[in-house]
Amino acid sequence: MLDGVKMASRRALKAVLVDLSGTLHVDDTAVPGAQDALHRLRRASLAVKFVTNTTKESKRNLLGRLRGLNFDLQENEIFTSLSAARSLLEKTRLRPLLLVEDGALEDFAGIDTSEPNAVVVGLAPEHFNYQTMNTAFRLVLGGAPLIAIHKARYYKRKDGLALGPGPFVTGLEYATDCQATVVGKPEKTFFTQALADLGCSPDEAVMIGDDARDDVGGAQSTGMLGILVRTGKYRPGDENKVNPAPHLTCDTFPDAVDHILHNLL
Amino acid sequence: MLDGVKMASRRALKAVLVDLSGTLHVDDTAVPGAQDALHRLRRASLAVKFVTNTTKESKRNLLGRLRGLNFDLQENEIFTSLSAARSLLEKTRLRPLLLVEDGALEDFAGIDTSEPNAVVVGLAPEHFNYQTMNTAFRLVLGGAPLIAIHKARYYKRKDGLALGPGPFVTGLEYATDCQATVVGKPEKTFFTQALADLGCSPDEAVMIGDDARDDVGGAQSTGMLGILVRTGKYRPGDENKVNPAPHLTCDTFPDAVDHILHNLL
């Protein structure tokens, strides 16, 4: 089970990063036992951070939904791809054209968006029309950095699969012959930023998620351990899609927590 | 001048393919002497075909505009990327979702578009919104072929550069992990289809255009001779962007005609 990542050289575990949708809950239902498993992590004095690739929900929204499912967490424990974009904008002092859904705008409160000199693309169906895409195109062609919240091809909606932000980012990359800076999972900087607040390094942390590439592959590329759970978007064989293999593949979040408490402390 | 393509093995010249915008005319102005040069080609008993990558103008529209500039031509001498798409649809008996401008629809008259099982993408600003892109995405994901009129990144509009169909085609390719079939220039089949009606082979034909890659490179890849003119979108050095080099680079369409009449007959 511990073949994927060498354990000998690792430092003592301090933090656990946890994916939300598909890991703690699937749609509007909590994974059975997940709330209690979270408590057990906290009782073991492990720092916990919730990391998600959302492009449309503010932290406040996410917090409300998770508390509604009886999860015990604070807003400052949530780190999203929107947070990562905001952090990049603050660092670079760029003024973005924000192609994100209205529900996500509050996570950019206070960011100057006048006379944009950058383009930020999330999942924004109402902005994905020719005119707005053209405005973004001209900005990028004129030298404005193109920042992608993430590049997912599509996602699952109640009425079937629907386009993610990736195709629109890719279209702008093709038109302008440039590469977007991706800020969400599976980018290394996403994970290191999430850990930075906790003051711990990748070899003191483990990531739990249902996406082999975005969660496990991304985290392990930084030096963290990655645990893949067989809930949410997991499909048999997903554990073979990343190299090195996940540190562990197990059925659910509570199983992942059991493994951590029994084997990694 | 004749270094680019070996002349010894070629058959007698029978046909000339001529690009429209940038070659015969620039915006609403004919290239000086172009109407007379066209007459000289016809008097030399050369078949002429007008080939263009338009994705939004019907043949009838193009004909009207060219006759308004005093060019002598017939509708059946025009071969466009829309014609190439129609030809592919007829051959494969596919029923397309047509993402083209309303002005181009008449070139698809009689094509069955009920219960689409193919997607055809031209430049269609009014269709490039999330909902229509999503409809196209689901069709392609379900196995419908994706057909691109062409994949231009952008084009020049009076108010500046504007997105072409390419970025939207590329977005759908990315989302569905498939490759579009491109029917316009510089695809080989575009040129061979244009010649097929004339009953002549590539080594009996020459192409004249202002786009080094789409006109000259595409035509020469089929075995035709390619002549690059320094009007329209030509920029100094364009002749170096294709390999083999153009058969000839000259100032204008009348100069290209002079060369053909004096050296290729």
Structure description:
The structure is a homodimer of 265-residue chains. In chain A, a hairpin with a 2-residue loop joins strand 9 (154-157) and strand 10 (160-163). With 265 residues, chain A is α/β, with parallel strands linked by helices. Chain A is globular. In chain A, strands 5-4-1-12-13-14 form a six-stranded parallel beta sheet, with helices on both faces. Chain A folds into two domains: 15-53 and 185-264, HAD superfamily/HAD-like (Rossmann fold, 3-Layer(aba) Sandwich); 93-182, HAD superfamily/HAD-like (Rossmann fold, 3-Layer(aba) Sandwich), CATH 3.40.50.1000. The first copy, chain A, has helices at residues 34-43, 59-68, 81-92, 130-141, 166-176, 188-196, 212-222, 253-264; strands spanning 15-18, 25-26, 29-30, 47-52, 78-80, 96-99, 118-121, 146-148, 154-157, 160-163, 181-182, 205-209, 225-229, 248-250. In chain A, helix 1 (34-43) packs parallel to helix 8 (253-264). Chain A is built from eight helices and 14 strands. Chain A binds chain B through residues 125-126, 128-131, 133-134, 137-138, 141, 153-154, 160-164, 166-168, 170-172, 174-177, and chain B through 125-126, 128-131, 133-134, 137-138, 141, 153-154, 160-164, 166-168, 170-172, 174-177.
Please indicate the count of domains of chain A. Answer: 2
Name the CATH architecture of the largest domain in chain A: 3-Layer(aba) Sandwich
The oligomeric state is: homodimer
Order of helices and strands of chain A: EEEHEHEHEEHEEEHEHEHEEH
Structural class of chain A: alpha/beta
How are the strands of the largest sheet of chain A arranged?
5-4-1-12-13-14
Percent range for β-strand residues of chain A: 15-25%
**CATH class value of the largest domain in chain A:** Alpha Beta
Using the alpha-carbon principal axes, give the shape of chain A. globular
What is the third-level CATH name, the topology of the largest domain in chain A?
Answer: Rossmann fold
The pLDDT mean of chain A sits at: 94
Taking the alpha carbons of the first and last residues of chain A, their distance comes to 16 Å
- Stretches of chain A where pLDDT is under 50 for at least 5 consecutive residues are 1-6
CATH level-4 homologous superfamily of the largest domain in chain A: HAD superfamily/HAD-like
For the biggest sheet of chain A, the summary is:
6 strands, parallel
- The Rg value of chain A, from CA coordinates, equals 18 Å
Number of distinct beta strands of chain A: 14
